[in-house]
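Record 1 of the preview.
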Amino acid sequence: MRPTRRSPCPLCRWPAFAFLGVLVACAAVAAGPESLANRTPADVGFFAEIRNAADLLVPLAEPQIWSALAEVAGQPAAPEEASDWRNIVRQSVQMEPAEAVEALLARQVAFVGERPGRSQDAIVMCRPARDSNRAWIEKWRAKPWPVPGAPPTYQLLGAIGVATPADLLVFGDLAPQDGTFQRTLQFLARNDKGSLGADPTFRELLGRVPPDPDGLVFVRFVDPPASQPAPATAPAVTTQSAATRPASSGLLGPFRGADAGLLALHRDGRLLRLTAVSDRATAPHAPRRDGAGRLLRRLPASVLFAWSGRVELHGLPAAVERLPERNVFRAGLKLVQPEGTFERLVGALNEEACVAIGLVRPASRAADAPPVPALALLIDARSAVDVETEALAFARSLNAFYELLSLQRGAPGGGGIEERSVGRTQAWLLDLSGVISGIDLGAIGELHVCWALHDDTLVVATHFDFLRAILASRAGDRPDLSSALALAGKRALDRSDNTLVAQTAAIADAGEQWLAFFRDKAPELLEESWWRTRQPGGGSNQLGIDVVQEGPRRRLLVRSVQPNGPSAGRIEVGDYVLGAGARRFTSTTPVIEMRRALEGRSQARWIDLLISRDGRRQRVRVPLPFVNPLDFLRRAVAIGELVDKLVYTDEVDDRGARGFLTIEPRRSPAPSPPMVAPIGEPPASQPR
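->
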């Protein structure tokens, strides 16, 4: 008998989010003898363990957080599927989800997956808070399921299985005979010493974080070398090993370019402090001048998000020249600058940079619109005189191009470059609002390029109110970010290469205002279909596989899989694709059916494929690139209802890089007044 195949194990989806629980939970787990790392095979690629976190695990089932974490765990899901998961929990363990968390996961739980972002085949281990394993099996009326050489195993619902080794309950997918669930059960039955807790990499990373962590997340970013040859039916195809391109290559901080990493949680009163380390070898270097917090400290207390770090500016002109001749960025830069201006401007700047996002209320826009985001860039100057000269020359060229564009469009031109005084600082303003004059909503209202030099720092902003607020806080006339940065501690700031501050509660409150505005003024923007036709590159999607069509058998043979593509880790060379979406292929041209299924898929962010591997059929969900800004906004709102502030810093020593993340939970979900840059009548213009 074979269980009904469900991919992935639906019951595992909620505990799969235990790794985020490590970020926000009041946990109490140490990597000692009682750690579930000692009951986990050493070759797993993702392990997260926590204790005593029931009260904070339950809120993670909020649909937007649920779906966001599902994508991180490699199981993309729509927010509405949270209700489907709740129904599956009710049917399988005969409890409401909150009760199941309290009874099964509250004492100790671990989530074990194949790799980060590839958790299609995952398991959950837990020590129940009450009752014996036998009592649970009897309550669920679970059916015995024979697994040779494994602890007692039972079927709950469909492919959902549960095993009872000693004092543990282990949930997983019964279907794959070589999957994580059955491999773990075989390991537990052997009781050998090849556990994750004894793994040298795991132990070395554990030794680099403060002792007695309250929670742990361990990840491997690189797959072990493939040991299984392709099936004889598949052509011999050489594919790039995933080990040559770590999945961490696009990450920031200490995980960038690493093969493995560890995240440890420690409680500090209400604050949650996380330390991130990896096996990436990084040579120590001199700390930044005055630390990374210097540019951030003097930003207004009202900023929503700010990052400070090193930017490789001096190689930027050469990088632009390496772009294709017809590249839009290269061509546009050539159009709006005199010869050599860009190179001279970059050469007059240092590599210390800061990016900040705040809110402003433009005067010339819809009166009932919420505060508008504004962006600012701060860069240290090597030569203030050269920066002032070249920035003004660049702005004049930009203004000339804008006037020409306005003339061609029949739109009103700008007023040229204005020089204004902000306190004792001279600032310049170029109004480009005509660029957005055709937007029907009228919610943005104004777009500026404004800049000033203050204490040898170039400050550029997209709205003059935001520039004014930054200059006022730098001059000490308004509250700055010092109190938020203090959450991280002075030591980390003084040695940091990167510093990030996110006032997530304020972001959530502003985001909710914008969602309400869209619901009232432009409800079409809330629909996924509106964004499908407005994707970068036209919205075309590829699965990242090369296939051979076997028309008479109505299937596709996978010849190769693109490394780090959408199908990597989900589809394998030698697999047969039998259907896409909710349908089997029915014609002798399955390639055409596949193309139509991709174009007409019900969910833009993934497609479900029916594949056959080693004679066994299974459904695989393949995530696809899709950008919907309002999805990010919804998730930011959900996160901000749980978390007030995030502060991240990192440092490099002779053992490598370490990252420090401090989380301040939100005391109340009640919205607060928006943190808007100060509004005031601008000073009279002063012609240059």
